[in-house]
Amino acid sequence: MKWFKSSHEFNYEWNLVSAAQWQKYPNENCPHVAHVDVLNRTIDPETGILTTERLITVNQNIPTIIRKILGSSSTQYVREISVIDPNKKTFTMRSINLTLCHLLTCNETIIYQEHPEDKTKTKFTQQAAISAGSGLMAGWSNILEEFSLRRFQQNADVGRIGFNKVLERFVVMAEEAQQQA
User: What confidence tens digit (pLDDT) does each residue in 65-95 have?
Assistant: First the structure.
């Protein structure tokens, strides 16, 4: 099993960052994300907690040899469940791959939360556990986990850069809307 962990601070309030998150895709930095479809969305009337289930379609640039060995295409599917708690000011997203999950699983958790020391900022934490299935020979498991970890790190980096651009555009739109009101 391989682990990934990253953290970042956004210089924007949690309300703005969590609202902009819904506009993250499409963006020019993440062309591998082809579609994001909402499957289910509920709001708890007592707590105000919003829970959303989404299906994310991703086109990964997987080396041909690996695709042939695994019998897969470049189109992959990911299930994401997000929970927004407006009272605690947390936005938690948990995702797991659906494609090839019998050979490799990637469990990812992302948390956006109001910065505990500066309410004008948002704390971002991302972690993932990547594990190759026990059906693979030990050597192949390690190779697949290492490759997947490197790919995950690359996607996380471009995803953060892309989200920063989306966030900047979102801030400009919010400021323009405020001026017109």
Answer: 766 766 777 888 999 999 999 999 999 999 9
- Long-range contacts: 66-75, Cβ < 8 Å, 24+? 66/144, 66/147, 70/100, 70/103, 72/99, 72/100, 75/34, 75/99
pTM (2 decimals)?
0.88
